[in-house]
Each structure stands twice: as structure tokens, then as C-alpha cells.
Amino acid sequence: MMNEQLLQSTEEVEQVVYSYLPAEEGHQKTIFEAMNYSVKAGGKRLRPLLMREVYRLFGGTGIEIEPFMAAIEMIHTSSLIHDDLPCMDNDEYRRGKKTTWVVYGYDMAVLAGDALLIYAIETAARAFQMTDNAQRVGKCIGILAQKTGIYGMIGGQTVDVELTDKLIPKDKLDFIYRLKTGALLEAAMVIGAVMAGASDEECETVERMAAAIGLAFQIQDDILDVTSSQEVLGKPVLSDEKNNKTTYVSLEGIEKAKRDVEKLSETAVDILYSLPGSNDFLEDLIKVLVSREK
After folding, report:
1. Are 78 and 120 in contact (CB under 8 A)?
2. Interatomic CA distance for residues 247 and 225, integer angstroms
3. In this structure, are residues 267 and 49 in contact, taking their beta carbons and an 8 Å threshold?
4. 292, 220 in Cβ contact below 8 A?
5. 3-state helix, strand, coil in the chain (%, to 5)
6. Where are the beta strands (DSSP E) in the chain?
7. How many Cβ atoms sit within 10 Å of the Cβ of residue 199?
8. Are 282 and 54 in contact (CB under 8 A)?
9. Can you give the pLDDT at residue 238?
10. Which residues of the chain, if any, have pLDDT below 70?
11. For residues 148 and 154, is the Cβ–Cβ distance under 8 A?
């Protein structure tokens, strides 16, 4: 049942995201094509899905959340485009498809990543026209920018890049994971809460829940990099080893990594129970995320 519901919800979310993509026309058509290719290359649509479910948890029912759902997926995609570049991880495949720089060239891939990043903010701002509560929209655009930028995802990626080929101590690895993976998940879930009118205290609780999910998700990623295959994952395995990267698994060992994923998942579900309202799908989604095979 969960799988059916997950498939249906993922498709609904995907349609929302696609509806905000630019038309592929005009002199700068190539950049639109590269942006759309990258967003449409597949993926779990996890961030917009979590955003929508938290919005519903707090009683949100409007379409005002939709521009933010599209925006967060654009930001996530922009980070993947740049991650795959030769100057970063130098990956040629993602989700079983050629990466953006391989298809469109290094130059266009850089521009497509930049374009999605700023188009995300332009998209999010469309929520102003869809709501009676402009203040919430303004607050959420601030959250989106902060969690993406130097105090969020880009800050985490900076430390990650600087420490490639070096042994990373646990505190720095936690910092990288919290910012590089956790920050966007936190943005997604907190924006869902804010747009539905949750209190500041409830938003902080949601942020804690998202942080636990983000860390569990990243550790599971490290586990899959060691235990899965390219056929299942759709991207090269052992790429961390190839890129000489310290991971949670290389620091803590696979058994402890698996136990910690379990523990973090339980923490996230416990926090969910402490919030008002209930959302069974959200609970199942958290569990599926951290036990995933790809």
C-alpha cells in the first residue's frame, strides 16, 4: 500500500515541479533545455514531498505551497549538476542517465546550475500571488536562501571540497552532513510548517526532526555506496573510495552506521509523534527513506 501511495504522491509532486519549468524557446533555449533535462532526469522528489506532507500535517490545504515545492527541487537539482562537474566529483552518470555536463558541456552545466538556483527564488516568489499571508512567503524565501547558501548547503559543500583527499575528523564530517544534506531537508520541512501557520516552537521541532532525517539519509547513502551496485543505484558505486573521501562508513564501520541510521529514524518518528495532528503517510515516508535500497 505504501509503495502505491508513494508512487502516486511522487507523481503528483513531480507534476507540480514540472509545471514551473521554463518553456524551451527563444535565443537562450539551450539553457532552458539543460535546466529541464536535469530536473526531469528522475529522482525521489523527496524534498517537495516532505514539504507538502508537513504542510498538510499542520492543516495546510492551499496551492500557495506549490511554488516552494518546485523551488526546492530546482535548488537540489542545481547542486547535483555542480556536484557532478569534473572540478567536483567528476561523475558521468546519475540516476542511470548521462550527467548534465556530459550532455551539454562543462560551460552550459555551470550556467544551468546557476540558472536553476536563481530561477528557484523567482519561482518561490510566485507564492505571493497565491496567499493572503505575504509575511509567511517572505519568511520562507529567507529560509530557502539561508539553507541553500553559505550557512547551509553551499557552506557544507565548501568544507567537503576542501577536505577531499584528507582524513576528516568526526566533528567536521557531522558538520558537512548537517549542512550539505540536512540543510535542504530542513528548509523543505520548515517551509511546509511555516506556510501552514505553525508556531515558532513547532517549526523548531520540525527542524530537529528534519536534521535527524537528513543525517540518517546521508549515512544510508554512504552505506549504499559500499553495498549496492551501479545497476540498482543508477550511479557509480565506490565513488567515495575512488574520490578518496572520508565517509561515515569509513570512520565508524558499516555495522555502527546501520545502527545509527536506525536510531536516527526512530528519533525522527518520535519527534513526529510529539507534534499536533497526524500524518501516517509522513511517518511511513520517514521509515522508507532510511531503509531504502537506492
Report:
1. yes
2. 10
3. no
4. yes
5. 70, 0, 25
6. 93-94, 97-98
7. 12
8. yes
9. 62
10. 1-2, 228-244, 294
11. yes
CB-CB contact of 113 with 41 (8 Å) = no
What the block records as the C-alpha cell of 169 is: 575528523
Distance separating alpha carbons of residues 26 and 22, to the nearest angstrom:
11
Overall size of the chain counted in residues = 294
Instruction: Report how far apart, in Å, the C-alpha atoms of 226 and of each of 93, 97, 164 are.
Output: 17, 21, 18
Residue type, 219: I
pLDDT (0 to 100) of residue 31:
97
The three cell numbers locating residue 120? 528557484
SS3 277: coil
Residue type at 232 in one-letter notation: V
Tens digits of residue pLDDT in 232-252 = 555 566 666 656 678 999 889
Please state, in angstroms and rounded to a whole number, the distance separating the CA atoms of residues 103 and 86.
13
